[in-house]
Amino acid sequence: MTTSPLDSLRAQFPLLQANPELVYLDNAATTQKPLAMLDAERRFYETMNANVHRGGHRLGHAATEAYEAARITVARFINAASAGEIVFTRGATEAINLVAYSWGGSTLKPGDEILLSTLEHHANIVPWQLIAQTAGAVIRAIPLLDDGQIDMAAYQALLSPRTRLVGISQMSNALGVCPPLAQIIPAAHAVGASVLVDGAQAIAHQEIDVQALGADFYVFSGHKVFGPTGIGVLWARADILEQMPPWQGGGEMIERVSFAGTTFAPAPRRFEAGTPAFAQTIALAAALDWLRGQDRPAIAVHESALYRQLAAGIDQINGVRILGTPTGKGPIASLVFSHAHPYDVAQFLDERDIAVRVGNHCAGPLMQSLGLNNGTLRISIAAYNTAAQIDLLLSTLNETLELLA
Amino acid sequence: MSDWPELPAALALSALTERLQAAQGWENKNRLLVQLAREQPAMPTELKVDENRVSGCEAHVWLLTRWHEGRLQMWADSDSRIVKGLLALVWAAYQGLSREEIANQDFGALLQELGLQRFLSSSRASGLNAMVQVIRNA
Question: Which of A52, A144, A304, B46 suits a disulfide with A67, CB 3.0-4.6 Å?
């Protein structure tokens, strides 16, 4: 008996094995976890649990070494120039907050401008609003074309010597649209602005090379790339990171403390105050190692085949359409219905154990720009989804829309 | 006071209880909720304004309450059929009750009894708790 590559991939996910009927299509919210990651976290606690960068004892040294090895693993995964460019955070949200407070707080002046695309998740909007308020800087929204793509002419027109930062998603969590970063980043640099790329959605689907990308900051969350919750990554170019002041105070981020004054540790430790989520960090490294060990080009082909199957099927159903451009996007589809509320549709899908997400997907400005009051129903595909699952989704959707008509 | 709809007999609490208990399984319950939504009069658009909206629901819910001879009258609508179906239950459970009776009405227990407890845990979406709070504070 032969096992297909997809079957053997699925076999590595205990939750999927325990729920063979489950059609999990909410991967943009969080991915399921492979055994390799789960084992790594458990093994850490069972064999080397001790706080990092502290105790002068055998376990403490082992834990510290594993923690720093995880930093190297992450650096390799996104092709950072060195492990020193990797800061561990609680997630992409905290990473953006770190950049806003530390970098933004120390560089933004009254009248400076921050350009954010209308596609952005609230996490790449609100931290900038908070720091802009303090610094007297101005937020400007980069508009979209009707198909959800960035309006590049409008973007070019917004760029000016006042632009200090461009915040842009690599893949929209709500629409799946992938902005043309290869044009967006050099254009920002040409006017002297820095660029923060939110990689939260892209990280599980594309191979990331931060040096080739050429941005200044890159962030992602562990739990959206088969890793555990509570751990994320900020990558910043070393020369930028070195200039950034600390943003939280505590243990391990200092060189020396006295009440007369404190000197801070060099980056990246300067940004990791307090006991870090070391077990999760090590588990994240295991998840990334696991993903590197998969046939990633084959996974990308599989995911886009599932997306095309989904899009072709949706085309055949009355009363539903996919928002945004049909091309140049990740395996995410946001559906809107002519006669049904997304919440009602999701309830019927849930009966067949088909898990999707409804709402505004933490992208309020995007939903407003599209004129959507009820949000959308989002289907987000991962490597372990199957063609049979997409078929089941489509037939259930068809039945549900007839029932709600 | 006659411009607000009367609770139809098919939506009285006893009739609703019977219908919901007869609907076995989630599929049938959801289908019935969609049916219940169809049996309720629609609220005119001019009443579907922000000040009548219940916050805390993912689907839009508009809820009007007033007192008539010490008894609660209500009118609710939603753009979600399933939520509107649940609103029939809220209507049936609270229409015509006194303040004291409202304070003693255990809506959670009623949902449990009708096999709809799932909608308690997904309260963010259906906002049932928020609606009951509005009624209790009416």
Answer: A52
Q: Give the A window 287-346 contacts with B, CB below 8 Å.
A: 340-341, 343-344
Residue A293, class by beta-carbon neighbours within 10 Å (0-12 exposed, 13-18 middle, 19+ buried)? exposed
> Among partner residues A343, A359, A403, which is closest to B83 by beta-carbon distance?
A343
pLDDT tens per residue, range B55-108: 766 788 999 999 999 999 999 999 999 999 999 999 999 999 999 999 999 988
Q: Inspect the interface and report whether the beta carbons of B31 and A403 lie closer than 8 Å.
A: yes
Q: At B7, is the secondary structure helix, strand, or coil?
A: coil
Write the single-letter amino acid at A223.
H
* CB neighbour list of residue A147: distance below 8 Å, 6 or more residues apart: A324, A325
The 10s digit of each residue's pLDDT in A120-147 is 999 999 999 999 999 999 999 999 999 9
Record the tokens describing residue B16, joined without a space.
Answer: 């609703």
- CA–CA–CA angle A54, A58, A64 (5° rounding): 45
What's the pTM value of the predicted model, to 2 decimals?
0.92
Number of CB atoms found within 10 A of residue A221's CB: 27
Note the pLDDT of residue B130: 81
Structure-token match 């049936």, residue found: B92
Cross-strand pairs, A335: A322, A377
